[in-house]
Structure formats: C-alpha cells, structure tokens
Write a structure and sequence with these properties.
With 140 residues, the protein is α+β, with helices and mostly antiparallel strands. It contains 7 helices and 4 strands, in the order βααβααβααβα. It binds ribavirin triphosphate and magnesium ion (MG).
C-alpha cells in the first residue's frame, strides 16, 4: 500500500464538546499522522464552496449552517491508503449504523452532527486539501 494523504474536518459538535484531542487520538491510533492542522471558523462562502457537491440535497442548508456554527479543525492526514483508513475509523455517516470502535459510533450525536468529515477518494482528497491549505502549511 502506498502512503497517501486525506483531508479531515473535526466538526462543530466535537469542538463544542472539547473532543479535538480525543478524535485526533483515534485517528493517530488508526495509523494516520497529522501533517497539517488548523482551527478555523468557516465563513458561509467556505462552507457552501466546500459542500457544493451537495447543493441540491435537501439537507444542504442545514449542513452549511452547522459547519458555520462554531469552530472546526481542518487537518491533512497521511498514512498507508489514508482515504480508506480514515473512512474505516470514522464509521458510517449515520452513527446509529456505525461499527463499534469507530469515531462516529463513539462520539457522533446524529447524522448531521456526526463529528468528522473525511474525503471519499484520492481525487477529492487533493481537491479538499487544496481548498483549505497552502502547500507550505503541510509538513510531512
Ligand atoms: P462526510 O462527507 O462529512 O465525510 O460524510 P459522508 O461522506 O459519510 O456523508 P455525505 O453523504 O458526503 O454527506 C455529507 C454530510 O452531510 C450530512 N448529512 N446529513 N440529514 C441528512 O440526511 C444528512 N445526510 C448527510 C452529514 O453530516 C454528512 O457527513
Ligand atoms: Mg462525503
């Protein structure tokens, strides 16, 4: 397996509950290394731009409002097969369907307030990393 990168967001429901460290620890224990990290408060422009792919979905407005509601932590994660490894430790979108030991099973509150985002392909990982980070901010 090649060492690759993925993009992660620790969402407002987690920063609000002071779970930044707990979530990051689960990512690290899954074999991922945090090679970039910053706490930001997303603007409407950022939230709508980042989730533009979901703009026609019924939950889009709610999703954008949630992601702007409080700070988030955006991260670049590096590891073997990072996208899949991260999706595995995150668990299913709906925490009621997430496997034991996953971040969402452990911490998520609902399908909307589901604690983390993770890229779903290598191609999207690159787009999402570039959306939030300059190359100079990533230290592998
Ligand atoms: P993510 O993109 O956040 O890593 O999550 P995902 O791939 O598991 O889920 P996706 O289908 O891409 O949806 C993006 C986010 O939208 C919210 N959502 N709400 N109310 C709903 O039915 C609903 N469905 C999705 C979730 O916060 C999901 O993570
Ligand atoms: Mg997704």
């Amino acid at each position: 397996m090649a060492v690759t990168r993925t993009f992660s967001i620790i969402k407002p429901d987690a920063t609000r509950r002071n779970l930044t460290g707990a979530v990051t620890q689960m990512l690290e224990e899954a074999g991922l290394r945090v090679v970039a990290s910053k706490r930001i408060h997303m603007s409407r422009e950022q939230a709508e731009g980042f989730y533009a792919v979901h703009s026609e979905r019924p939950f889009f407005g709610e999703l954008v409002e949630f992601m702007m509601s409080e700070p988030v932590v955006v991260q670049v994660l590096e590891g073997e097969d990072a996208v899949t490894r991260n999706r595995d430790i995150m668990g299913a979108t709906n925490p009621a369907e997430a496997a034991e030991g996953t971040i969402r099973k452990t911490h998520a509150l609902s399908i909307g307030e589901n604690t983390v985002h993770g890229s779903d392909s290598d191609e999207n990982a690159k787009i999402e990393i570039d959306f939030f980070f300059d190359a100079s901010e990533i230290v592998g």
